[in-house]
Amino acid sequence: MKAFLAACVALTVIAVCAAVVLDRVNEPVDEAFTSATSVRI
Amino acid sequence: MQAFCVAARIALGALVLAFFLSLTLPALAQQNAPVDPQASVQSEESLLQQFPRIEGIIDQPNLRESVLIQPDGRIWDHFHEVTLRWIGALAILGTLALLTGAYLLLGRMRISAGRSGISILRFTSFERFAHWLTAVSFVILGLTGLNITFGKILLLPLIGPEAFSAFSQYAKYVHNYLSFSFVFGLAIIIAMWMKDNIPEKADIEWFRQGGGFVKSRHAPARRFNAGEKLVFWGALGAGLAVAVSGYLLLFPFYVTNIFGMQIAQGAHGIVALLFVAIILGHIYIGTLGMEGAFEAMGTGEVDINWAKEHHGLWLADEIAKGRVSNQQAGATPAE
Amino acid sequence: MARMKFLCDADRCIECNACVTACKNENEVPWGINRRRVVTINDGKPGERSVSMACMHCTDAPCASVCPVSCIFSTDDGVVLHSKDLCIGCGYCFYACPFGAPQYPKIGNFGSRGKMDKCTFCAGGGGSEVPGSIEEYEKYGANRILQGKLPLCAEMCSTKSLLAGDSDVIAKIYRERVITRGYGSGAWGWMTAYRERVAT
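ok -> structure tokens follow
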């Protein structure tokens, strides 16, 4: 039972960390396509 | 003398004028030749015959938009709405029908010698932790994934569009983020159990003896029997496939173009549906299908008679290592 | 009943992008969202052609078919609209659309892309807002159809290459043009969108 509960906690923690990281990657288009580094063609 | 110069100048002027006039002759010839505005134009059909998409130059910085037309979008739509649903329905309903039939025909497979009351440790708590991490992630991923393909047919009519959209929105977030938990758990499982899942000669014999389903025969097995090895390698392959295709879908157009995205979604859908079907079988065996199986993952300890019957070679090794808590007289070594 | 369609005469389009600008202005489309775009084939080479492309408002729209939450639909006029309240931003409509019409406010991962936005044929939106209201305008853009007007992109086209309106009317205009001038590269996208050609 302990192993199962620990697993549930772990999967939530990993999922939350993933959410935080991915949200930083997710750019609004008005920032994504105006950056100086983006290539036009 | 003067008259001669005048005449000469006039003649020279006339010659120069005639020279320049003669330069217009080619143009006169051209005016009669028809201009064809379509001379080098490629039609939409001819372009699509050369390549399944038509691409060009655009002013906007978003490169995805440079695809003018990709008619294959309709094909992908048909695949998702028709083909994938058929595959899913057949695989999952077919598996459920098979399992129901198996339960009705064979019933719950009992421990032939009955419980001995003596148990032996089969899985440590870390192993169980890794399994449940992967398993719970998988179940939730499976359900939220099935919602994308089957939700609007099965669930939307029941709860209405607003509730269904709200549910689907959260289901989608959960699916995205739990994928990391699943991959993490799967990686641990592969690292932990790879060495015990290498195929060997005993596996062929296990199949020949009916894989433990035929009571009169004995199917030899070490820590993992051949059926479990199939689940391991199936989960490894399918898990890898859904993970790679899933991350391509999660980061759209970072790596592939639109055709690549369509292929990724197709692969993700087909593999995931088959994966669900396999795991349904795995869950059945581990719960309903076989007495004494669940506790291996529940508490970690299994009954010796169960181990003798289904993992005889493994039990013999464990006894030899002195791991059995209370050795019953005549606890038989390897068969 | 009118069947609304777009037709871009590729032999007249001069890539001026007035249609793009008109749409952006009329619908106050945010930066990065490209409801309409002009694509140039064979740029700089003989036979260069430009085509103005937005949502074609297809017959049997594949976007409506594939949407997992059924938020996209066709009106009686054939205009394809969607509800931003129901949209979950999954991005599937973009994979299904042959014309790249769906746009999303964020570039990132599946499901966090925000609500899909696309050309509405200047017919407002497919949500529950009152047609012509300020709420509808803020979410979806102009509703010119309600006022009996046609989409602004076609109205502002500098060469009248982009035509918008009833299928029979614009097909007739294009046909007459092709016959009069003697050539035409066809109604681009019509076969895929409407499963028909303009007979010339």
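Residues 2-25 of chain A form the longest helix (24 residues).
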